[in-house]
Design brief:
Blueprint: H1 14-34, H2 39-57, H3 61-95, H4 97-106, H5 114-129, H6 132-149, H7 154-170, H8 176-185, H9 189-216, H10 227-239, H11 248-259, H12 263-281, H13 286-295, H14 309-314, H15 323-342, H16 344-352, H17 359-377, H18 380-397, H19 402-414, H20 424-433, H21 437-440, H22 445-460, H23 469-485
Family: Belongs to the NhaC Na(+)/H(+) (TC 2.A.35) antiporter family.
Pfam families: Na_H_antiporter (PF03553)
Keywords: Antiport, Cell membrane, Membrane, Transmembrane, Transmembrane helix, Transport
């Protein structure tokens, strides 16, 4: 039973509506970006501020809790997918699927094709692992070693690695941010991923053209493979037994993506197959296989000496690896649930949409929101959740499918994040690859061209999914039900 307060709730003013969001921006911009404070308590403080506003508007404490609970309950299936992602990475690692991708990817290196190979192989590894940071910190570091050995352009190599890492991340069902964008927009994961290709695939092609042309005109002629690459490939070959069965877990996920099968069951089947590979082909014991699924793979499970460079490559995955992402999600969803009860987002969006007169300007408004959030908060998850929460109903009212929104937010926040020096992603990529963010920025073509293609498609209508009248009516009706429940 819903408990209400005696005071009749009222609609907030524009200033009251902006106050919680501005508070969150200031707290995250100052605390997280400037002083490196963890974002979770800052989001909790932002939620408290939003809660005080909601109380001032006439809502009760129980109504606030009810709104937060409903917001979390609605996203619980996607949160379960995030946990399944950690399970999949851990089992793919111990089963040999990811190591085999890395092994054969590194075997493809050719001097003149160094830059485009770095782009494409990092993309492949990132698709398979679902982590841009992981692929940049492993394969990316390996390619930087190749570039140093060949006396290549380190900024161009780093740009190729970053672009490839983020393409793979956005087009992988294992990616936390991709799952988060789909759940926030209430769009099927695979539908979101396929729709994202309208902007990421042209950006990848453009990146590949730039890297190929530059590679053939850069004077790279050495055919020597640096010792770093030899250590990785020989180390992996000594630890794992590679055969085509290692690809079966990948094929299962790809099949599920193409046929749009339920995400979690497909991931579980893929993980089970990877476990069988780990036991029957790789020779790991059952205890280590289960531990890898829960806590992630660790090189201590390999009972032989391996090169130190493989430690960073192999130590990853597990369901527990997703707990940090889940905590941020819960904090952000608490803020979103509290704010949704106040009606503040409706007030803000109403003012914002006075400037929107076409699909193109709607896309531009979304890009502006995404860039502002990532530029100020420096947090990818928050920069996904808040703009989608603000604009989803506006898209539906204009007959635009919410997957246009989830795609544009990823283009303007997630993919743009690593080319901003003050964000965690920008700092990580610069520190890991040894190249300043602003130096590799021009070469990370995919990261900044996404918003160009998003804007172009918005004004031309290409790749813009429209809702049928029936779909629009159903989604609007569901939105009214959700509002009534709040």
């Amino acid at each position: 039973m819903k408990i209400t307060s005696n005071k009749q709730p009222r609609t907030p003013t524009l200033f009251e509506s902006l106050l919680p969001i501005l508070s969150m921006v200031i707290l995250l911009g100052g605390g997280y970006a400037a002083f490196d404070l963890p974002p979770e308590p800052l989001m909790v403080i932002s939620t408290v501020i939003a809660g005080l506003l909601v109380k001032r508007l006439g809502y009760s404490y129980n109504e606030i809790l009810n709104s937060i609970s409903q917001k979390i309950a609605k996203t619980m299936p996607a949160l379960l997918i995030l946990i399944s992602v950690g399970l999949l990475i851990g089992t793919w690692m111990i089963g040999g699927t990811i190591p085999m991708m890395v092994y054969y990817g590194l075997k493809m290196i050719s001097p003149a094709m160094l830059y485009v190979t770095a782009l494409l192989v990092t993309s492949l590894v990132s698709v398979c692992t679902g982590t841009s940071w992981g692929s940049a910190g492993t394969i990316g570091v390996a390619f930087m070693g190749v570039a140093i050995g060949m006396d290549a352009n380190l900024a161009a190599t780093a740009g190729a690695v970053v672009a490839g890492a983020y393409f793979g991340d956005k087009c992988s069902p294992l990616s936390g941010d991709t799952n988060l964008a789909a759940l926030a927009a209430q769009v099927d994961l695979y539908e979101h991923m396929w729709h994202l290709l309208y902007t990421t695939l042209p950006s990848l092609i453009l990146s590949a053209i730039v890297m190929t042309v530059y590679g053939f005109n850069s004077g790279l002629a050495s055919d020597d493979v640096p010792e770093r690459i030899i250590l990785i490939t020989e180390g992996l070959n000594n630890v794992y037994h590679f055969n085509p069965l290692m690809l079966l877990p990948v094929i299962i996920v790809l099949y599920g993506s193409i046929t749009k099968k339920p995400t979690i069951p497909i991931m579980l089947v893929s993980a089970v197959v990877a476990m069988f590979n780990a036991y029957f082909i790789q020779g790991f014991n059952l205890h280590d296989i289960i531990k890898s699924a829960v806590d992630g793979f660790n090189v201590s499970m390999i009972h032989q000496e391996i090169p130190a460079i493989l430690h960073n490559l192999l130590n990853r995955g597990g369901m527990n690896s997703m707990m940090g992402t889940l905590l941020i999600c819960f904090c952000a969803l608490s803020f979103a649930g509290t704010l949704a009860l106040s009606g503040a987002l409706e007030v803000i969006v109403h003012q914002l949409l006075k400037l929107v007169h076409s699909t193109g300007t709607m896309i531009l408004a979304t890009i502006a929101c995404g860039l502002t959030m990532i530029g100020v908060t420096c947090n990818g998850q928050i920069s996904i959740l808040i703009p989608i929460e603000m604009l989803r109903n506006a898209y539906i009212e204009r007959g635009l499918h919410p997957k246009n929104l989830s795609r544009t937010v990823e283009d303007s926040a997630t993919i743009f994040e690593p080319i901003l020096p003050w964000t965690a992603a920008g700092a990580y990529m610069a520190g890991t690859l040894g190249v300043a963010t602003l130096s590799y920025l021009p070469w990370a073509v995919l990261c900044w061209s996404g918003i160009v293609f998003a804007t172009l498609w918005g004004f031309t209508g290409f790749g813009i999914a429209k809702l049928t009248k029936q779909q629009q009516s159903e989604l609007l009706a569901q939105a009214e039900i959700d509002t009534a429940k709040n």
